[in-house]
């Protein structure tokens, strides 16, 4: 297990995303950058995979050489103090090995892993032989945020059909890997969309099995592309500011609920479109976006001579 540095809380945390790309901007590293910025962080990015995808699915994946990934990681950490890391798509064993070695050497204080294995559209994004390496990496992070299909793969069980089963799978993964798990209920068919922060080490509230649940109403939209990427990045950013996992998940979920509520306004793509990462910012700055009023002309009195 990687021993992480003690975090130093900052008003503007420097957050590094290690993930794959999305040319349409709704998921992957593009979504991470938007989420980090929307939650008040300074966003940085190291690319693991180049993904040809859009709102309707993945077409192909190109993985650059592992050595180039290592050079990207070193270029950032040799120069910038990193307050938090969000890890997304890794793709294969060689990529995971590079990231794991870098984590052990650099020891960033906060690491959130979104184990990108299967997309909402059903596309497989992790080689089958890399699953064992991914499980080892989970033990080196502070929080892992699988969706229900990914959680099922990680505990080698069928996909949970109800919330109590999902919670039990989260407990099992937390115990097996010795880290916190954010269990996400977005794939369940229900009016609410529950999430739960599970910690088998009992470090959330001092109990043997710590489970903190967060429940929000389900937003009726198909535009949920990149939701998992965005939530994990948001949690990492807020955690680097507050130092409290429960607060980080709560604030990130509130922001995500708003981003989902206003996702349809973007009208991006013909499939599952992206969430509205900057709705709160655009609303706050709405007065600046209004068309300028024409200046009033002061008419001088006419003087007949």
Question: Describe it for me?
Answer:
This protein is α/β, with parallel strands linked by helices and 305 residues long. It has helices at 28-38, 66-77, 93-106, 131-138, 148-155, 163-177, 227-242, 245-261, 279-284, 286-289; strands at 14-19, 42-47, 50-54, 57-62, 84-87, 111-113, 143-144, 180-184, 192-199, 210-217. 36% of the residues lie in helices and 17% in strands. Strands 2-1-5-6-7-8-9-10 form an eight-stranded mixed beta sheet, sandwiched between helices. Strands 3-4 form a two-stranded antiparallel ribbon. Helix 3 (93-106) packs parallel to helix 4 and helix 5 (148-155) crosses helix 6. The termini are far apart.
Summarize the topology.
Elements: E1 14-19, H1 28-38, E2 42-47, E3 50-54, E4 57-62, H2 66-77, E5 84-87, H3 93-106, E6 111-113, H4 131-138, E7 143-144, H5 148-155, H6 163-177, E8 180-184, E9 192-199, E10 210-217, H7 227-242, H8 245-261, H9 279-284, H10 286-289
Parallel strand pairs: 1-2, 1-5, 5-6, 6-7, 7-8
Antiparallel strand pairs: 3-4, 8-9, 9-10
Helix pairs in contact: 1-7, 2-3, 3-4, 5-6, 7-8
